[in-house]
Amino acid sequence: MSVLVCFHAHPDDEVFTTGGIIRRAADEGHRVVLVTATDGALGEVPEGILRDGESLAERRRSELEASAALLGAQRVVFLPYADSGMAGTASNSASAAFCNADPDEAARRLADVLHEESADVVTVYDPNGGYGHPDHIQVHHVGVRAAGLAGVDAVYEAAVNRDHVRRLITLRPSGPEDAQIPDLDTFGLPESELTTFVDVRGAIEAKRAAMHAHRTQIGDFGPFLNLSDDELRAAFGQEWFRLRGAPAGYRETALPL
């Protein structure tokens, strides 16, 4: 049994880029630990979903636990940081926001988990955090430092394959209803920089179920929930990573678990 630790910024981030590898690793008998840096309290939530007296942070915690169970993660760890909000918003300057946390202190917190779990593989984000979100960028910096402190060599940057997104747009220019097309010059990483291409089509139903578990974040998942099975497999049936320190031209089709 190997131990995979997936480090993410907010509840629901685990589904998009690592939901498939979490489910696949669990099905293969490995231990999976999901670590989330923030409470997600600044996410947008449709009216009427929260119960009386319930905070968004409380609901998102329970949603993450439900998602983790569906994906097969055996442990969920919540780091004690506040959501920084989207880039350029006033909340970015809050002292409690994860983007303003002392990177060394945060890295030590994560390293403690890596030591405790004897982690073999850690996933973080690419240096731009996928799309420039301050919390995602901080996940990259903190995750890389923590892996160094814990002596974990297999550090994988989970990333969107921007060339794959371009291919999908070519095949279906209109895209799912209400889906916003990102700036593909900065979103994710080009295919040429990716090292690891993992087929997770067998986990697609678990990924769909995990999307549904995050009811408060319907704005993020809404455009994808009604896709056909074939469309969902095309969009989310593969997950991509860049192995830090990999030699030029390195390619693989699975994480070293």
> What's the SSE pattern?
EHEHEHEHEHEHHHE
Largest pleated sheet: 7 strands, mixed
Question: In percent terms, what proportion of residues is strand?
Answer: 15-25%
Structural class: alpha/beta
What share of the residues lie within helices? 25-40%
Question: What tags apply to this protein structure?
Answer:
seven-stranded mixed beta sheet; 257 residues
Structure notes:
- Helices cover 39% and strands 16% of the residues.
- The longest helix has 17 residues, at 134-150.
- α2 runs antiparallel to α6 (204-213).
- α2 (56-71) links the parallel β2 (31-38) and β3 (75-81).
- With 257 residues, the protein is α/β, with parallel strands linked by helices.
- It contains eight helices and seven strands, in the order βαβαβαβαβαβαααβ.
- The chain is globular and about 50 Å long.
- A seven-stranded mixed beta sheet has the order 3-2-1-4-5-7-6, sandwiched between helices.
Secondary structure layout:
Elements (H helix, E strand, L loop, with lengths): L2 E6 L4 H15 L3 E8 L17 H16 L3 E7 L21 H15 L3 E5 L8 H17 L3 E6 L2 H10 L24 E4 L4 H10 L4 H8 L3 H8 L1 E6 L14
Parallel strand pairs: 1-2, 1-4, 2-3, 4-5
Antiparallel strand pairs: 5-7, 6-7
